[in-house]
Amino acid sequence: xxxxxxxxxxxxxxxxxxxxxxxxxxxxxxxxxxxxxxxxxxxxxxxxxxxxxxxxxxxxxxxxxxxxxxxxxxxxxxxxxxxxxxxxxxxxxxxxxxxxxxxxxxxxxxxxxxxxxxxxxxxxxxxxxxxxxxxxxxxxxxxxxxxxxxxxxxxxxxxxxxxxxxxxxxxxxxxxxxxxxxxxxxxxxxxxxxxxxxxxxxxxxxxxxxxxxxxxxxxxxxxxxxxxxxxxxxxxxxxxxxxxxxxxxxxxxxxxxxxxxxxxxxxxxxxxxxxxxxxxxxxxxxxxxxxxxxxxxxxxxxxxxxxxxxxxxxxxxxxxxxxxxxxxxxx
Amino acid sequence: xxxxxxxxxxxxxxxxxxxxxxxxxxxxxxxxxxxxxxxxxxxxxxxxxxxxxxxxxxxxxxxxxxxxxxxxxxxxxxxxxxxxxxxxxxxxxxxxxxxxxxxxxxxxxxxxxxxxxxxxxxxxxxxxxxxxxxxxxxxxxxxxxxxxxxxxxxxxxxxxxxxxxxxxxxxxxxxxxxxxxxxxxxxxxxxxxxxxxxxxxxxxxxxxxxxxxxxxxxxxxxxxxxxxxxxxxxxxxxxxxxxxxxxxxxxxx
Amino acid sequence: xxxxxxxxxxxxxxxxxxxxxxxxxxxxxxxxxxxxxxxxxxxxxxxxxxxxxxxxxxxxxxxxxxxxxxxxxxxxxxxxxxxxxxxxxxxxxxxx
Lengths: 331, 253, 96
Description:
The complex is a heterotrimer of chains A (331), B (253) and C (96).
Chain A: H1 21-31, H2 44-63, H3 65-69, H4 78-103, H5 109-117, H6 135-155, H7 161-190, H8 194-213, H9 223-230, H10 238-256, E1 266-268, E2 273-275, H11 281-291, H12 295-308, H13 310-330
Antiparallel strand pairs in A: 1-2
Chain B: H1 6-26, H2 35-63, H3 69-74, H4 85-88, H5 94-115, H6 121-150, H7 153-170, H8 178-185, H9 196-209, H10 232-241, H11 243-247
Helix pairs in contact in B: 1-2, 1-8, 2-6, 5-6, 5-7, 5-9, 6-7
Chain C: E1 9-15, E2 23-29, H1 33-44, E3 52-57, H2 69-73
Antiparallel strand pairs in C: 1-2, 1-3
């Protein structure tokens, strides 16, 4: 997902008997469904894991602006340009809300940004794939935002108050994103010319498995996931969400007249779910560790924007300080 | 030379200004100096795209050959564009982008304010909607220009350079021609040259706060709003912007 | 690594269309208060959410401490007589 493979303590679920009395009381609050707020007691590992998770989520929104931003200047109509720009702008907004949530845990936005730029923090693997045609704007909205929503809706109930509130706002705003993407797909795959139909199928072919990878590898046995779920900062397992995504997406592809690029895809009457092929996890690990098709470009684009903007950030603050001094002197 | 359709020409000028500046502004999406500014620039671009739809939509109606705002935006070539040269040159750094926005906003606010009294009620309506957006744009761009001009030695030097670069282009806003005269005679619009005074006052006041000196040259680069001679940059911008409409004629998106 | 050029954090409060009180909607960074107002307008009212904005520098907020939660808020719990449902009014009196 936007926060894939977040490391928690690495020690597995902590046994209640090993917890300090404070940590027991803390876990009890979470079990009762109470929200943890910034000044409340929290175990250090909870704080650190959350910073990693929220930070990764925020970075994904910001890096995620780039593959779609790639098409804003080439959008085919004025309306499409406005839709896409509004959507990519929302992603900046979501990154902003999430960075602010992380800041309540005692880390600054600039520190998080530096960790992204020095590759000490990650972002979602999905944004390391290129967007090659206009149909990719459809596929990204439909599949990538669709997958993101699967994860984000339950996170509105996450135990950390500022994170949960950010997710509420994000989910409210995101509701048009997936529809916007699917609408592009309808125009191209269902109502479009032969070329447009080919573009639509091609986009699905390229984005299907990367979208499945967004949920991360199976985590049934994961030590990190067990602890994160006990803390309610992770609500569902990766496999649950992936299955839900496939079950919802396959009929949508059928409506478009598109073929999911998976020969093993079939409905299972007994389970009431689709069976499908696993993505190539070796590719996933390559992408996560920096070898995806666009990793270098994406990070360089972020670093360049940040470095090019340094003089602006510095000057605006310098002006604010000078103005304040002038105002004080005049008093 | 007799004017074929001065109202159409006039509307293209309004629409193309918004279209071209909106496009340039949208190029900042995802790469601005900080998230807050990224979001603000996108709002500005969205306002301008909306203004484009209104102006070019009306232009299409006035022309009367069934062309839509999209047809006009995506299927004309360089020589048919009527935007100011200042708006088509590349963004440069964030400072130059803000300076350009400011120089344009300082014109747009009084211009749109006066267009609200146009004898053409459609123009008056569009202007009434656009002027609210322009007022906020002016507030934001002028405050940013002041902050960057006043900020640090480096930022002041950058803003001075931006002003020097843009200054000759800004003159084009006030060069009246036969189309402007026809619009003035018909009570549709005022002559742009009437606004040079008020514009200069705004610019002087902001420049003073921004610790910047206005260049004393009056030389104006022109040819954008008449379409006589654009810069080389517009063609590249259109090549990008129009690629899908040109590559797949007749497709709907 | 120092972050001497990081803009301060501001908390944003917005009053919506319907005359309700200002409500905390989130935070943002800005160089000064006026800049924070403009940023709040651009970040938090994109969907026509507000008619009035307050901003306050996050560092200037004094918050109650979680350890005071008991003494601060528990005493209000048993003051049930502050709520209208505490009082039974005979039905024949009608709506009150």
